[in-house]
């Protein structure tokens, strides 16, 4: 029996209608005591049983599962040879045109009423009268557009391109005016003489030149707009889009619904090794993102006095003149450690507090009880959208949508700290301060005033000379002009193996280093800095920086063992305390503090190489 009708995209065709009738005749002979039968639609996948009217309604609305050729759940034996169909195969991934056809079918399928198992057994759905009440002319025209190539040799159709353009418009919050500007931009970049819309031609021409498939059309258009904004025009462009921030959950809703279905109901999966199918259930174990995205996904603000998303309300922070610093790493030392009482060389206080607590998922759920509920978006009820959080809300901005997953609160790591961005920020702090780079150094006049406020390191306090000019004494952690020149010459002389790193010498100019990429900082911090600074810094300053570089070398290793991580967890506390004795408090932003939590995350999540942003950003 030929069952190619299963793959027919047009669910309103006579072939598909006849196929449903043939299946319903078989299904009506195999119902259980509740007069129900497994539903083979794309949504249920024979995992749910419904009455015959509901099954018929599902087949109209969602389509028949494309892998269900032999109706074994309806007592059919393995006697039918699968028909070779040019339309699809069981293992073929859905194409973008399939997605477009599904939209058309859902839009033009007759009104079947409620299909969530509430249909009565005597209700009839999907008969010929219902089907022919749809606007067939419009449907056929759209089907024709979905089969017409956007341009010769293109896999995308005109309708597919339109769907993706509108998807991009909605996804990035483009207004009608800004969307028209986008089309004009694309037309200006790639003018063409053909009759198809210039925007479609421009986008697909770029895709063809870049060797990309048409499923990348929305990302390519967005990148094109960014390129145009940066290189062609100083005017406002649709690409100037504000990040969704707290509204991110709106975009995550479809993903969360699918993840809940994947965990609670599962999905039929093919096992190539055993040539069988099984119901697969799977959870999400964590997310991989940079630190600002960490705040958006977790719902914990990564700014302010409680910026650390691991320490939460126990975050140690201090208000400086123009920023907040995150020192206080003596809390992690043993109670009898002499540094705990050394106020002069640290922040001017004696530190006898216990380390911060480790918060469980249940603790976090209890904290959510104090959050003030607010509706997402520009809702009229949100009259206090810019209100300040109350102290009892801590740094929680909202309850993340991920907590709808029943297992999410039980995970030890929900969002990974991104090591590559931590390295980047720490490297910038160190290099900017050592070379006294304007705008990047942490040894500013305000930083010296912070030392005076804390009554520590009096030799570095600002002073006035006889003429009333403010005098700033040289610090032991900054290089002299001659040493800066020598260090920069050293960086210019370094040669790397092909593919190992970028040419960092191009970023060295006039005794300054600028424009370093994240991977440049990765190489500079771990490999170059420990060697380059030895001749120019005293041992008390040089050794903690070398130890910090060794720490990142070991934490980024391809293989790790628990004993080494236990040692690194102790070492990083000592290293951070040594740095507190050297650099001004302004040096210690939250990214420096996050280095302390990396060994713990490596214990729970494994090697860093599988949990950072390098593969994604490349």
Instruction: Order the strands across the largest sheet as they lie in space.
Output: 1-2
Fraction of residues in helix: 40-55%
Are there runs of 5+ residues with pLDDT below 50, and where?
80-96, 111-134, 188-241
Q: Output the number of helix runs.
A: 21
Number of strands: 12
Largest sheet: 2 strands, antiparallel
Structural class: mainly alpha
Shape: elongated
Per DSSP, what share of the residues sits in E-state strands of 2 or more residues? 5-15%
Averaged pLDDT, please? Answer: 79
Distance between the termini: 49 Å
Q: State Rg.
A: 31 Å
Characterise the protein shown here.
The chain contains 21 helices and twelve strands. With 618 residues, it is mostly helical. Among the domains are: 4-139, no CATH class; 151-242, no CATH class; 419-617, no CATH class. The strands form six sheets. The chain has a two-stranded antiparallel ribbon. A hairpin with a 5-residue loop joins strand 9 (463-464) and strand 10. Helix 13 packs across helix 16 (518-532) and helix 16 (518-532) packs across helix 17. 28% of the residues are buried. It holds the Pfam family Transposase_21. Residues 3-76 form the Transposase-associated domain.
Give a quick set of tags describing it.
single chain; 618 residues; mainly alpha; two-stranded antiparallel ribbon; two-stranded antiparallel sheet; elongated
Secondary-structure topology with pairs:
Blueprint: H1 14-27, E1 36-38, E2 49-51, H2 52-62, H3 96-108, H4 128-131, H5 136-147, H6 158-171, H7 176-189, H8 198-210, H9 217-231, H10 248-264, E3 267-271, E4 276-280, E5 287-288, H11 291-298, E6 318-319, E7 324-325, H12 361-368, E8 415-416, H13 419-434, H14 445-454, E9 463-464, E10 470-471, H15 481-493, E11 508-509, E12 512-513, H16 518-532, H17 539-555, H18 562-582, H19 590-594, H20 598-605, H21 614-617
Parallel strand pairs: 5-8
Antiparallel strand pairs: 1-2, 3-4, 6-7, 9-10, 11-12
Domain Transposase-associated: 3-76
Pfam family, one: DUF4218
Protein name: Transposase-associated domain-containing protein
């Amino acid at each position: 029996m030929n069952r190619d009708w299963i793959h027919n995209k047009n669910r309103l065709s006579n072939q598909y209608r006849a196929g449903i009738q043939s299946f319903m005749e078989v299904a009506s002979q195999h119902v259980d005591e509740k007069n129900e039968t497994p539903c083979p639609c794309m949504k249920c996948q024979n995992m749910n049983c419904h009455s015959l009217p509901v099954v018929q309604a599902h087949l109209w609305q969602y389509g028949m599962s494309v892998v269900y050729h032999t109706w074994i759940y309806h007592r059919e034996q393995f006697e039918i040879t699968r028909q070779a169909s040019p339309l699809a195969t069981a293992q073929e991934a859905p194409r973008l045109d399939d997605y477009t056809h599904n939209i058309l079918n859902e839009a033009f399928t007759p009104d079947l009423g409620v299909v969530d198992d509430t249909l009565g057994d005597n209700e009839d759905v999907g008969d010929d009268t219902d089907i022919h009440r749809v606007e067939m002319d419009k449907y056929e025209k759209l089907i024709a557009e979905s089969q017409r190539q956007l341009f010769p040799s293109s896999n995308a159709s005109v309708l597919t391109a339109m769907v993706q353009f509108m998807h991009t418009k909605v996804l990035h919050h483009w207004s009608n005016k800004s969307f028209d500007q986008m089309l004009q931009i694309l037309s200006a970049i790639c003018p063409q003489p053909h009759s198809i819309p210039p925007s479609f031609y421009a986008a697909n021409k770029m895709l063809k030149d870049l060797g990309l498939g048409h499923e990348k059309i929305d990302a390519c258009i967005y990148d094109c707009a960014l390129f145009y904004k940066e290189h062609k025009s100083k005017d406002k462009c649709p690409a100037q889009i504000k990040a969704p921030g707290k509204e991110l959950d709106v975009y995550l809703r479809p993903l969360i619904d699918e993840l809940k279905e994947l965990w609670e109901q599962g999905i039929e999966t093919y096992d190539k090794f055993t040539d069988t199918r099984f119901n697969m259930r799977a959870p999400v174990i964590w997310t991989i993102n940079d630190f600002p995205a960490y705040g958006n996904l977790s719902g914990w603000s990564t700014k302010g006095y409680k910026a650390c998303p691991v320490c939460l309300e126990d975050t140690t922070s201090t208000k400086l003149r123009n920023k907040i610093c995150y020192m206080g790493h003596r809390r992690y030392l043993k109670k009898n450690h002499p540094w705990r009482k050394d106020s002069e060389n640290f922040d001017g206080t004696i530190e006898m507090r216990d380390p911060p607590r480790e918060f469980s998922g249940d603790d976090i759920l209890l904290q959510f009880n104090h959050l003030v509920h607010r509706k997402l978006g520009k809702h009229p009820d949100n009259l206090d959208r810019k209100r300040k959080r109350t102290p009892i809300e801590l740094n929680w901005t909202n309850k993340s949508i991920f907590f709808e997953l029943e297992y999410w609160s039980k995970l030890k790591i929900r969002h990974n700290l991104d090591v590559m961005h931590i390295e980047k920020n720490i490297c910038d702090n160190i290099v900017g301060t050592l070379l006294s780079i304007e705008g990047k150094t942490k040894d500013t006049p305000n930083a010296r005033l912070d030392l005076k406020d804390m009554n520590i390191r009096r030799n570095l306090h600002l002073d006035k000379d006889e003429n009333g000019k403010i005098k700033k004494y040289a610090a032991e952690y900054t290089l002299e002009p001659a040493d800066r020149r020598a260090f920069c010459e050293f960086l210019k002389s370094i040669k790397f193996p092909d593919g190992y790193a970028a040419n960092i010498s191009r970023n060295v100019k006039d005794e300054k280093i600028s424009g370093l990429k994240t991977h440049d900082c990765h190489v500079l911090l771990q490999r170059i800095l420990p060697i380059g600074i030895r001749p120019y810094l005293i041992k008390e300053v040089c050794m903690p920086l070398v130890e910090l570089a060794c720490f990142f070398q070991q934490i980024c290793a391809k293989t790790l063992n628990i004993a080494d991580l236990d040692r690194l967890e102790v070492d990083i506390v000592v290293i951070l305390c040594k740095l507190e004795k050297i650099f001004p408090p302004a040096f210690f932003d939250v990214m420096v503090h996050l280095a302390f939590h990396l060994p713990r995350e490596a214990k729970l999540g494994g090697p860093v190489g599988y949990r950072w942003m390098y593969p994604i950003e490349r």
